[in-house]
Amino acid sequence: MDIFAKIAEQKIREAIENGEFDNLGGMGKPLDFSEDLWIPQDLRMAYKILKNAGCLPPELELRNEIICLRDLINTIDDDQARLKKMRELNFKLMKLNELRKKPLQLEQHPEYEDKLYKKMIG
Questions:
Q1: How far apart (Å, rounded) are the C-alpha atoms in residues 79 and 83?
Q2: How far apart are CA 3 and CA 16, in angstroms?
Q3: 107, 113 in Cβ contact below 8 A?
């Protein structure tokens, strides 16, 4: 879990304990995700067509490739082949970071994640 998710979870737990979620409108009713309300009206049809065709945004495709490469690297016994795949993984991570414009990924650096979490929570 990344640092921001941990902070959000902590804040949600505090709000539940303080009763801030009691008596909310729609409480106990299922959410309706059939409408893509977060997608601008003029893009909904195009997104629906792409979704039905099984197309993913480039960032998600790259993330899937990274996950598969990590799994593959763990199964390779040959050092040369592992090194080659690790270079490919590093390139894909660099590419993903460039797409996101976020160079630091805390989930890849757990030694810093806990320290940062404790510092931000107080």
A1: 6
A2: 20
A3: yes
pTM of structure? 0.47
Is residue 21 within 8 A of residue 15, CB to CB? The reply is: yes
Contact indicator for 6, 120 with CB cutoff of 8 Å:
no
Cβ partners under 8 Å of residue 76, min gap 6: 82, 85
The terminus-to-terminus CA distance of the chain in angstroms comes to: 19
pLDDT tens digits for range 69-119: 999 998 999 999 999 999 998 898 888 888 777 555 556 656 556 666 676
The identity of residue 52, as a single letter, is N
Q: Locate tokens 């879990």: which residue? A: 1
